[in-house]
Amino acid sequence: MSTPVLACTSLAKIPTPNIRQVANFHPNIWGDQFINYTPEDKVTHARKEEQVEDLKKEVRRKLMMAAASSPSQLLNFIDVVQWIGVAYHFEGEIEEALQHIYGSFHDGSDMDGDLYNIALRFRLLRQQGYNICCEIFD
To answer: What does the alpha-carbon distance between residue 22 and residue 11 come to, in Å, rounded to a whole number?
Structure first.
């Protein structure tokens, strides 16, 4: 009736793994600094957050000082803050400063008339969504 199945010895042989050569790489310049990462404790984290808040206050203070000194200095400061990528922390202050510059622009009080400041004012106001005409370059 049923016949027993015999194990076949002619099946494909299981390949033996090849022994790989071990390369002698030079030591990593980083060492094991990233392998042995330990998260910082709460005190260190709180200290860093406090330091960040102090730096934000200092930037806000400098932004207000630049606004009080001259519009061209304010525009340069806003440009640098945006360029280094931290403008999202100061969106309200930048919007307020650019609103003031836009208002003074429409009042007819022109600031520094050199091409750099005119182009910078044009670009920053356009990036913020203000409707500035290209005729200011004439």
So the answer is: 33
